[in-house]
Amino acid sequence: MENIAQVPGSAEIQTVLSRYPDAGEDQLIALLQDVQESCGYISRDAIVSIGRHVDLPAIKVYGVATFYNQFRFQPLGRIHIQLCRGTACHVKGSRTILERLEKHLGVPAGVTTADGLFSYEVLACIGACGLAPALTINGDLRAKVNPDSIGDLLNEYRAKLEGI
User: Per-residue pLDDT averaged across 122-128, rounded?
Assistant: First the structure.
């Protein structure tokens, strides 16, 4: 394993841990949330560091983190999509949108593309039921999304990022 001082994000991890000087197992979720907030995700080194800090095996920390779907284990893409799969969006075709995202990006939900450009996740509801099917891209709401437009939508955001 790398020296923790050389791991990207290790300074942020240590800063979070310093805010919990006498942390125990009862503060594990708060620690995980704060590390994710600071680093953008929970790295393997974060799991190990948190485990040492609260005197728990890393596997137990990882088990708790994987139990809750709020935690990510890799960085988000520069373009992050959140797809609603709530009832209204489901009825209006969000399953097909999900399939198209996977096809166009070549990765399943919850995984970032190899180039770090795109990531997407499925949410139970984004509160835009009257606009179904809906998704957000970097926080921008897209309403009444047509599954056939997913490729164009991805290209639009790719072009914005590249300044084309």
Answer: 94
